[in-house]
Design brief:
about 180 residues; alpha+beta; six-stranded antiparallel beta sheet
Length: about 180
């Protein structure tokens, strides 16, 4: 049984379910990609898979079921990897959970201009105000999006921030995986 708080929106429920799953794995994990499928359609068209996922006894037939995909290759930039994805029609959405270092907005003005990607990463990693964050972002084919943010220092289900525009760049990259 999930400890995910009830949310009115099926996409928000899926994001929180994935966040809870990632939280159970602990920190310092690789990025994880999920296909989102319509639960009722999955149960009707793929009963064996639904049973494998523990959905055969679930009374809820509406909503989205996240299905974790194969591991994201290491050594390849996330945006490059996302550009290689094509989803079958049965997939109504997708989600990604990834950990990153984040600085508060008050620090943005002090970021040195001359730093390239690797040196900027080092600068952020050594900054005393850095925070580790796990971002879970989900999108649907129709353009709907939602996300959850969890800070490592406040690692509690009651401290998860949700909203559709928390990580807009990542949401746009995931939406692009559905482009024809």
């Amino acid at each position: 049984m999930s400890n995910t708080p009830m949310a009115a929106n099926p996409l928000t429920r899926a994001v929180l379910e994935i966040d809870e799953y990632a939280s159970g794995l602990g920190w310092d994990q690789p990025a994880r990609l999920f296909a989102l499928v319509d639960t009722a359609r999955l149960k009707a068209q793929e009963p064996a898979l639904a049973a494998q996922l523990g959905l055969e006894d679930a009374s809820e037939t509406s909503g989205l079921t996240p299905i974790e995909q194969e591991e994201i290759p290491t050594g390849k930039a996330l945006d490059e990897f996302l550009g290689t994805i094509a989803w079958p029609d049965a997939v109504v959405g997708c989600a990604l959970t990834v950990e990153r270092l984040m600085l508060p907005p008050s620090v943005e003005a002090s970021v040195p201009d001359h730093l390239d990607g690797a040196r900027l990463t080092e600068w952020v990693a050594s900054h005393p105000e850095r925070q580790e964050v796990r971002m879970t972002v989900a999108v649907l084919r129709d353009g709907s999006r939602d996300s959850a943010l969890r800070l490592r220092e406040k690692d509690s289900p009651t401290e998860v921030l949700t909203g559709p525009e928390l990580v807009p760049g990542l949401a746009e990259a995931l939406t692009a995986t559905f482009a024809d």
